[in-house]
Automatic annotation (TrEMBL):
Subunit relationships: Monomer or homodimer.
Enoyl reductase (ER) domain boundaries: 15-327
Pfam families referenced in this protein's UniProt entry, alphabetically: ADH_N_2, ADH_zinc_N
Protein's UniProt name: Prostaglandin reductase 1
UniProt xrefs under Gene3D superfamilies: Medium-chain alcohol dehydrogenases, catalytic domain, NAD(P)-binding Rossmann-like Domain
EC number: 1.3.1.48, 1.3.1.74
GO cellular component entries: cytoplasm
Provenance organism: Pygoscelis adeliae
Residue ranges that the Swiss-Prot or TrEMBL entry lists as coiled coil: none
Length: 329
């Protein structure tokens, strides 16, 4: 029998999550039945969606939702061999049993030298979010100007680099000077720290006096309300996320409509990346190629230890991550 460690949601979040909202438990896993696999998590993802989705999709006592890169340690399923790596959506667990239906094998072209954790970030759901949000929602064209916020994060950093590959001018903002320096290092034309500028309006105007053709919005709130006023005629806004809203116990009133826009994928180009699940292989192939060519740089914020998952999650929500936030078991 294998003992799995799991993190459960002890208490629904009020405002920013607290470590006391989580409980670490142990579960004895049964022996495998025919067709089943035993897997061990190697890398786990912490993502912003977990904050709002926990309130919508979970009840107290449930195992936290989430994805991981896992290794097959025992198999009674001929389609999966011991030692293979997969991406799973099994939540915050060290070990789990699967029937294989919900697993995605890492591409066979994945080089040994490339960290498998990238399957949770640049060459995974966040990367696909950038890829499809830019190509299918922003519909960026060469010569246009693209604005992205949370630009040093898992999604934003890929948005900016893909926009450069697409021949665009790219403006990004992030919440620290180190992140701004990173943005310039990976090719952003303009970048600023939204926490320290005296005026967001002026910073946006200075970065692109003619305004913006595309706005890839990860944040919503006040930033979006200001940026929207600097869009060029026929500009397009990809409403990807509203992380400025997720931790407010009382959702902001007034002009902040991003959260329902994203979730209901309203006409104003709100979207959820799962819309393109049928084109997942296309996106992953393109992202992997650009990473291997060095055209898309990757950065990960790695937290060591399964016991530190709540801290990694809270840290990401507070902006402590540069690049994709992951936990190494
Ligand atoms: N629609 C979809 O299908 C998907 C949407 N998303 C959304 O994309 C966005 C980015 O996700 P992801 O790249 O994984 O996360 P990141 O790696 O960017 O981490 C979150 C970042 O958000 C920024 N942030 C946190 N709170 C605020 C705030 N109050 N105001 C401004 N910025 C804030 C912080 O960076 P900083 O230093 O810049 O403040 C923090 O590092 C999120 O809104 C997420 O919900 C992600 C995946 C799929
Ligand atoms: C209160 C409304 C919330 C508004 C939308 C919030 C967040 C947008 C976002 O971050 C969406 C992420 C989508 C992720 C898609 C696929 C997965 O990897 C997560 C699957 C979650 C699950 O169903 O297990």
């Amino acid at each position: 029998m294998v003992t799995a460690k799991v993190w459960v949601l002890k208490k629904h979040f009020e405002g920013f999550p607290k470590t006391s909202d989580f409980d670490l438990k142990k579960i004895e896993l049964p022996n495998l039945k025919d067709g089943e696999l035993l897997l061990e998590s190697v890398f786990l993802s912490v993502d912003p969606y977990m904050r709002p989705y926990s309130r919508m999709d979970m009840k107290e006592g449930d195992i936290m939702i989430g994805t991981q890169v896992a290794r097959i340690v025992e198999s009674k399923n001929p389609a999966f061999t011991v030692g293979a790596f997969v991406v799973a959506r099994s939540g915050w667990r060290t070990h789990f049993i699967s029937d294989g239906k919900d697993l995605q094998l890492l591409p066979s072209s994945w080089p040994e030298s490339l960290p498998k954790s990238l399957a949770l970030g640049t060459v995974g759901m966040p990367g696909l979010t950038a890829y499809f949000g830019l190509l299918e929602v922003c519909k960026m064209k060469p010569g246009e100007t693209v604005l992205v916020n949370a630009a040093a994060g898992a999604v934003g950093s890929v948005v900016g680099q893909l926009a450069k590959i697409g021949g665009c001018k790219v403006v990004g903002c992030a919440g620290s000077d180190d992140k701004v320096a990173y943005l310039k290092k990976i090719g952003f034309d303009e970048a600023f720290n939204y926490k320290t500028v005296t005026s967001l309006d002026e910073a946006l105007r200075k970065a692109s006096p003619d305004g913006y053709d595309c706005f890839f919005d990860n944040v919503g709130g006040e930033f979006a309300s200001i940026a929207i006023n600097q869009m060029k005629k026929y500009g397009r806004i990809a409403v990807c996320g509203a992380i400025s809203q997720y931790n407010d116990s009382v959702p902001q009133k007034g002009p902040y409509v991003q959260v329902p826009m994203i979730f209901k994928e309203l006409r104003m180009e709100g979207f959820i990346v799962t819309r393109w699940n049928n084109r997942r292989e296309e996106g992953l192939k393109a992202l992997l190629k650009w990473v291997l060519e060095g055209k898309v740089k990757c950065h990960e914020q790695v937290t060591e230890g399964f016991e530190n998952m709540p801290m990694a999650f809270i840290g990401m929500l507070k902006g402590e991550n540069l690049g994709k936030a992951i936990v190494k078991v």
